Amino acid sequence: MTEPLIYELSSSGRCGVFLPELDVPQAALPEEYLRDDLPLPEVSEVDLVRHYMRLSQLNWGVDIGFYPLGSCTMKYNPKVNEEAARLPGFARTHPYQDHCSVQGNLQLMYELQEFLKELGGFAGVSLQPAAGAHGEFTGILMVRAYHEERGDKERNVILIPDSAHGTNPASTTMSGYTMVEIKSDERGNVDLEDLKAHCDERVAGLMLTNPNTLGLFDEHLLEVCRLVHDRGGLVYGDGANFNAIMGICKPAELGFDVMHYNLHKTFSTPHGGGGPGSGPVGANEKLAPYLPGPIVVKDGECDFEHEEHCYHLVMPEKSIGRMKSFYGNFGVFVRAYTYIRMLGAEGLKQVSQDAVLNANYLRARLTGLYPMSHDRVCMHEFVAMGRIGGAPDVHALDIAKRLMDYRFHPPTNYFPLIVPEALMIEPTETESKETLDAFANALIQIADEAVKDPELLHDAPHTTPVGRLDEVKAAREPILRYVPE
Ligand SMILES: *Cc1c(COP(=O)(O)O)cnc(C)c1O
């Protein structure tokens, strides 16, 4: 057991700061700003330091341990990214600076656009969107602009497979389209018959995640794209799972017209807790003119000594406009750019190969004890089921909570929605065989405990400062202000 968390440390009269002596004439403060009473905690310096150190240690992160949170790609974030992002020339630029004085920043943005174009096979990339979901919204607005421009105004449906991430229906609905759900077949692919049944002249497009959230590469991907294109629809790619295929295949060549990248997932920026992230959108020849702007173009060669600047900001020809103030989340661009330059083309490809290898290694070690959603080689993640033979009352949630006692972050659970008792495991490429084995051993031991002592799992976690929380209440009624006892 860890020590209980003591939050109230105030003791009347204690003080952790010394103000310097007043060296300016004393002035009266405006009456309206004065309060009779301001109850702040009275603590010493050491109390204060220990309080925040303890709080920081209650947090879990990839820098502490394994974080196999499926779909979220919680890979290790190399510290060199942070060093690059902190360089004063990047960190201290102001978005209102004249473009002549920020040519280096524009060069970085331009080259990042080019790298993403190359990786995805797209004709154009905009770095504007601030997250994956924002990229989805952007892409769907581009699809709509494309159809409207052609006078094709009857289309109002976006098809979305039932394995999709919750942001897909949300961003589609926000853009004014109606979403229609497409079933998955028993191998985890888009069900071709169901797709055919719904693919008509009302369809503006299909939003598809590939590999999908089951960790499976759609075996009929080319045919799926062809079916939608044949009916005049477009294909949007949710690129959140790009970590599985980077440098191996190009989504544009597979049939995607437009796709977002999650820089904070695939290209390593610390994420979770709300950002900042970045969800650049790539588009093929057909849709590139609609990309949001400004985007960076290169005109000739720069000759800085003679003040000749070659990087410029432009709006694409039929741009849907801006999706974000200024130029997007620049700090994330620096991290992604550094990551790409440090690894190079071969390194990026190996990232994906290792991510897939790690996932399949874990899947193989757990097969037999935990039922798998699909009996297929997986990509960078897989979905197991929290159902253990001989332990009918044990659920995915109990297994997830018990894993915390073994000092592992639980996998994503109860998503994707089409798998009962889902435990979605994404180890990422940055984990060693020793870590993967320790995690597999913990799950194997937990399966044994589930049969012998199910209560141990029902009451888990036992070693954390707090146990099972009321997550809804925590989100709806957060306490964000110090209130003295
Ligand atoms: C993470 C994720 C998203 C949303 O991306 P954000 O950057 O969190 O907005 C969409 N789809 C899938 C499959 C994801 O894993």
From the structure above, extract its key features:
single chain; 485 residues; alpha/beta; Aspartate Aminotransferase, domain 2; Aspartate Aminotransferase, domain 1; 2 domains; seven-stranded mixed β-sheet; three-stranded antiparallel β-sheet; 12 strands; 11% strand; binds pyridoxal-5'-phosphate
Structure description:
This protein is of the alpha/beta class and 485 residues long. The chain has 2 domains: 80-341, Aspartate Aminotransferase, domain 2; 344-474, Aspartate Aminotransferase, domain 1. It is built from 15 helices and 12 strands. The strands form 3 sheets. A 7-stranded mixed sheet has the order 1-7-6-5-4-2-3, sandwiched between helices. A 3-stranded antiparallel sheet has the order 10-12-11, covered by helices on one side. Strand 11 and strand 12 (422-425) form a beta hairpin. Helix 2 (79-86) runs antiparallel to helix 11 (330-366), helix 4 (103-120) runs parallel beside helix 11 and helix 11 (330-366) packs across helix 13 (433-452). The longest helix is centred in the last third of the chain and has 37 residues, at 330-366. The two termini are 26 Å apart. The model has no long low-confidence stretch (mean pLDDT 95).
